[in-house]
Amino acid sequence: MSRNDKELEGVTLLGNQGTTYEFDYRPDVLETFENKHPENEYVVTLDCPEFTSLCPKTGQPDFGRIIINYIPRVRMVESKSLKLYLFSFRNHGDFHEDCVNIIMKDLVKLMDPKYLEVIGLFNPRGGISIKPFANYGDSEHQDMVRARLISNFHND
User: Fold this and answer.
1) CA–CA separation, 119 vs 97, rounded Å?
2) Catalytic residue among 5, 48, 62, 156
3) DSSP 76-110
């Protein structure tokens, strides 16, 4: 059950040998494809272990890991476009909490998922690591939104 050309319309970056890596925030590089299994409720996890952005005050680089979990509806994010999108934060100056919320909002706008969460696990700077969590759910997933939010309070 492979995908046909019509199902791959709009997926332009995958397989493109002329990829340009942008160093400034670029939500317009995000692409989607059709979910072939909208009748199933399932979770997709995307893990970016080498996320970088800049401190908005000092301009120093911040390093972290971004984990995205979502339950798709009709559209799904194409992974190479997501890689380029996340790479575009490299010279973006924002706090960790802002980056996580921006990523969540951009992906919700792009895909209209049933549920989506973004977890940031940032490396320590100044002896403190920051682990922001942001999530979204449609009206049928509000219990999950609350449960996942509460479960992300850390005691360790």
Assistant:
1) 10
2) 62
3) EE-HHHHHHHHHTTTT-B--HHHHHHHHHHHHHHH
Distance from C-alpha of 140 to C-alpha of 128, rounded to nearest angstrom: 36
**Which tokens hold the place of 61?**
């680089």
**The token pair that represents 115 in the structure block:** 């549920």
Sequence ranges of the domains in the chain:
32-151
Please identify which of the residues 55, 94, 106, 112 carries the catalytic annotation: 55
| Predicted model pTM | 0.87
**Dihedral of CA 50/53/58/60: which sign?**
positive
Residues in the chain: 156
Concerning whether 55 is annotated as a catalytic residue, the answer is yes
44-76 tens-digit pLDDT: 999 999 999 998 988 889 999 999 999 999 999
| Chosen CATH of 32-151 out of 3.30.43.10, 3.40.50.40, 3.30.200.20, 3.30.1130.10 | 3.30.1130.10
